[in-house]
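re: the backbone from monday

yeah here it is again, tokenized this time
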């Protein structure tokens, strides 16, 4: 009993540090969303009248809406290309090596991005900032895969959704603090030093990766599982992709369409709120946009506990998608206060994430989790990148000094609504196929554990993962 308790204690200590790995990267990821006015602002307002300076002219980096949305598209597409290979790399060499390598690249990417902001008005601005987002995108998604793989190793079969929910909670804390603090920091220190501050948070996250890597290596060695994991890694082949089930691919498509509605909206939400709804300052609009992450910050852990307790993961995913449909309808066709929609979206997002991503661990063998997560992230990022480009096209190429017409925003919301409708359709097929293949995703909790114990491979870490 004492030994089992010690294992549980060690698992949760490791979980605490593992949750902190992506705090800095998540803070940095949506900094452009909060600072969209500055990214799309005029290079100078010196020749404007006093009235124009206070109402129409915002001094910034001079990007068009299309160039701004390309920052998100580059991140998504780079992520999509790299994570397949990085998932295979993590399965072969281990999560500890992966998190250190990818954290270093995140620091380099955020530093290059911040450096680019010093070259406004020159031909170096866009290349440097795009390279920074490229490096950031090539590593952030890969870091999350390694982070998820560590959770799957230590918590599969026990408190899986809870552990995943706690991880998302800490990550989204970075996003929430970004929406609350970045605007004020920019007013006091300027956009350049604000971006450098984000880079320092990524450095702090790198320190946590070293701690997690050591704890993971020491823990597996003390349990006598390091040799087993090394042997399993030798068996991993990239060709194993062809053995992934239809249920897995439907799960991936469901994830993609749901996130197609979330991330492109967050990227432009602050500007949308200011353009459509009167009376909101930049800081107030960023607070309202950030309410999506505020709600998810509070609910991820609760949603994880409920999903672990109830089971029925595919059903919960379907319900979450259906309940998301009214959000974009409200944003497109009504003037209901935007805070209602963003909080609503945060609630459904929490339950969708808590049910969808941990489900990957239940339909894929332990040895291939890195590849499976890499593929899932690739598909998600390809979808998000395409959506960011489409949103940029729908908004047009006006400069930041001009208010984007409301009917342009309405087209964007209809497009995002279409993605959620597609998510509903995909999740319906996911439930049908899951039932045909044994219903592991929709088993109640006790039955789910029984299925896992029956199908678990001898090389998996069953004594570690089940003991308390």
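seq for it, each position gets an aa:
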């Amino acid at each position: 009993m004492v030994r089992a308790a010690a294992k549980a204690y060690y698992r949760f200590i490791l979980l605490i540090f593992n949750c902190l790995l992506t705090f800095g990267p998540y803070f940095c990821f949506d900094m452009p969303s909060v600072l969209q006015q500055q990214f799309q602002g005029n290079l100078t307002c010196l020749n404007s009248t006093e009235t124009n300076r206070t109402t129409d002219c915002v001094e910034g980096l001079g990007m068009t809406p299309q160039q701004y949305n390309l920052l998100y598209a580059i991140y998504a597409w780079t992520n999509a290309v790299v994570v397949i290979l990085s998932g295979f790399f993590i399965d072969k060499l281990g999560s500890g090596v992966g998190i250190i390598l990818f954290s270093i690249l995140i620091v380099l990417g955020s530093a290059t991005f911040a450096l680019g902001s010093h070259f406004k008005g020159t031909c170096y601005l866009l290349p440097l900032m795009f390279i920074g987002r490229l490096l950031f995108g090539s590593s952030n998604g890969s870091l999350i895969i390694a982070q998820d793989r560590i959770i799957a190793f230590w918590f599969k079969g026990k408190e899986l959704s809870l552990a995943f929910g706690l991880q998302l909670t800490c990550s989204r804390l970075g996003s929430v603090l970004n929406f609350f603090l970045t605007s004020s920091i920019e007013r006091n220190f300027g956009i350049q030093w604000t971006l450098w501050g984000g880079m320092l948070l990524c450095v702090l996250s790198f320190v946590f990766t070293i701690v997690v890597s050591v704890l993971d290596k020491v823990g597996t060695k003390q349990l006598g599982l390091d040799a087993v994991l090394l042997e399993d890694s030798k068996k991993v082949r990239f060709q194993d992709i062809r053995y992934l089930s239809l249920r897995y691919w439907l799960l991936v498509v469901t994830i993609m369409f749901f996130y197609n509605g979330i991330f492109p909206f967050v990227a432009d939400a602050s500007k949308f709120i200011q353009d459509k709804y009167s009376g909101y300052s930049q800081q107030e609009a960023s607070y309202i946009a950030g309410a999506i992450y505020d709600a998810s910050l509070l609910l991820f852990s609760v949603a994880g506990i409920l999903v672990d307790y109830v089971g029925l993961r595919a059903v919960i995913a379907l319900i979450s998608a259906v309940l998301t449909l009214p959000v974009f309808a409200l944003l497109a066709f009504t003037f209901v206060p935007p805070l209602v929609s963003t909080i609503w979206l945060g609630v459904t997002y929490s339950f969708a994430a808590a049910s969808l991503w941990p489900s990957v661990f239940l339909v894929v063998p332990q040895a291939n989790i890195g590849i499976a997560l890499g593929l899932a992230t690739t598909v998600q990022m390809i979808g998000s990148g395409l959506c960011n480009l489409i949103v940029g096209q729908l908004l047009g190429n006006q400069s930041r000094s001009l208010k984007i017409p409301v009917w342009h925003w309405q087209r964007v919301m209809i497009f995002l609504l279409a993605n959620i409708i597609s998510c509903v359709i995909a999740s319906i097929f996911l439930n049908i196929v899951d039932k045909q293949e044994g219903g592991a995703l929709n088993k109640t909790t006790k039955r789910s554990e029984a299925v896992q114990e029956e199908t678990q491979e001898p090389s998996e870490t069953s004594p570690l993962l089940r003991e308390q």
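Residues 1-6, 48-55, 446-468 have pLDDT under 50 and may be disordered. The two ends are 8 Å apart (CA to CA).
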